[in-house]
Amino acid sequence: MTTTHLPPLDAVSLDLLEMMEQADPAVAAALRGEAVRQAETLELIASENHVSPAVMHAMGTWMTNKYAEGYPGKRYYGGCEYHDTAENLARDRAKELFGCRFANVQPHCGANANISAFMAMCSPGDRILSLPIKSGGHLSHGLKPNFSGTFYEIHDYELDAETERLDYDHIATRAREVQPRMIICGYSAYPRTIDFAKFRAIADEVGAVLMADIAHIAGLVAGGSHPSPFPHAHVVTTTTHKTLRGPRGGLILSDDEEVAKKVDRKVFPGSQGGPLMHMITAKAVAFGEALRPSFRDYAAAVVANAKALAEALVEHGYRLCTGGTDNHLLLVDLQPRSADLTGADAEAWLEQAGIITNKNGIPNDPRPPMVTSGLRLGTAALTTRGLDESHMRKIATMLDRVVDSQGDAAVAAEVRGDVKSMCAAHPLPH
Questions:
Q1: What is the pLDDT of residues 14-54, one digit of tens each?
Q2: Which of 14, 111, 146, 275 lies in the 20 to 30 Å Cα band around 138?
Q3: Residues designated as active site
Q4: Distance CA 137, CA 143 (A)
């Protein structure tokens, strides 16, 4: 096997690459390239993270060879003894992690979890009240081309125009006007703490179901660095990656037995067939890791790093939507730096320097989604790498150098060297 330029890898990863080079050199080249890319770049995309070797390799095991339609003890195929074991471990650990009574670990992703929750709690045509994607919501919360916007009557609530924060009085007013069947809280680009108790009070007043989509903050909730949606939400959906640092997948939680029964039926057979048992096995491993005391330290560090990065960016003259952050996420408004500066430009320039970000709309963004006036940044992956608040200030300076140079190739090359040095001093866990 060619080891030139490979980053430090665990033994299983090295064996995998060697096997793939023999079986499929083209795929092996892609795997090697991605291993190097992740090792030598700083990941600031708020929805991404780095899993442990145990989680990563659990996805590539014998568990992938089996159909296991149904649930533990009630499968439609034989030979599911050990798949039952893995799924029960994942369910029990999820319940312990989030302090709830019921967990469905089968959704393939967060959007699938939302599909199942919608189907369980609503009928086609029901009214749903949510924050639109243009203001920080998620596409599965009501975007017209999405299932949510296709099959349900979506109504919006908005952020306060001045503070760019949730306005609970406004949300309550909209709920009274709309009389929704469901109210959704939980977002893709909202950097502040969510008051789930206030949302539940609003939902109770109008007789609505409260659904909390905690995909972005699940790891912070599990680690005690963000308030829990329990006991307030009727149903909770999430991804299992992002801040939770597990495999790509979905999860649905509830404290209500009747809700849980409806959810189970809408996951299988309602919206999925056979579950991805290799992913469920990896979820079990990740939930086990998140139950360790060290995970609480990690969650706290994610938030501390985000605050440090926010402060440093403000010192460099950037405006942050809402004025800062309470969680892992920062939404940077680039317009005050330059009226012509776009998120698309900044994303491309920064990638050349080894700083990986994503363009993102800001509230009331005048530019289209593929251009945008902002960047969405996150600190989960940086924290997993072992970087601390002092590194956040250095990263802010590197980011500013690149943006200020308007992508100058020489500046990008210099910063890329600094990025590689930082990454080499703080290698990934695999």
A1: 999 999 999 999 999 999 999 999 999 999 999 999 999 99
A2: 275
A3: 67, 69, 213, 239, 242, 248
A4: 9
